[in-house]
Request: fold
Amino acid sequence: MYEANYSEVSEFVFLGLSTSRSMQHFLLAFSTVFYVTIVLGNLLVVFTVTFDSHLHSPMYFLLANLSFIDWCLSTLTVPKMISDLYSGQNTISLQGFVIQIFVLHVLGGSEMVLLIAMALDRYVAICKPLYYLTIMSPWMCIWLLVSAWVIGLIHSVAQLAFVVHLHFCGPNLIDSFYCDLPRFIKLACTDTYRLEFVITANSGFISMGTVFLLTSSYIFILITVWKHSSGGLSKTFSTLSAHITVVVLFFGPYIFVYVWPFPTVPVDKFLAILDFMITPILNPAIYTLRNKDIKMGMRRLNSQLLSLRKIS
Reply:
């Protein structure tokens, strides 16, 4: 019976953020402007770090990869939302739904590990400056990046391993604008209480564990600087404030959605906008507006492009 019913559900329907047509028009304009800004801002950081030899250092290498992941996260969800708002066709196939969930968790898990790597970079730079180039060697940077993607992949496979066997016989309405795993599970034609607990434990473990590691590293850095020079504490905190801001912006909505994954109010839909549209804009803004090297690199890149135009 399950097999027959399972074949009946071939697509899902997103309910989106609002049923009001005027609100949908506003969201269409809002999301379009923000997505264009996300693409331009994050790719500008990636290209600047890639083509400016002055920025070929571990910190900027990790920052460029953070911008790349942010761009991928937004591209995975926002264009689909824009298309749905424009056309009014809010459907997605079952295969497309599963693929988006898979990629979403790969990117989310990878970004968590990458934030830990960036915290490690700042720890070595501040607490062990004489050994910085030895510890944060090019091979170490590549190893950290590969580890981030591998852990993200393992996390995503572990999540989907619990749900690929589920059968869906209706309804097929998703009260969201993207492929949300907790809401996907609730549509299964079976008792999913234990599965909900496992999914929550998996996501909660990696998110809370990452927050604990990041918080501990920042506290340790500040204590170490305070012991050696209380005067350098404010400067160090200013340096770390950008990292702390990014961590709060990224993990705040994520923890809300997955530590409390079955809310009775649709607050999580609007918090998800922070991760997919607001944070990917603020990340390059936070790091570039506060970083003289990045701003100088962008100016050099702009000068090179202008020179090439004159020659052509």
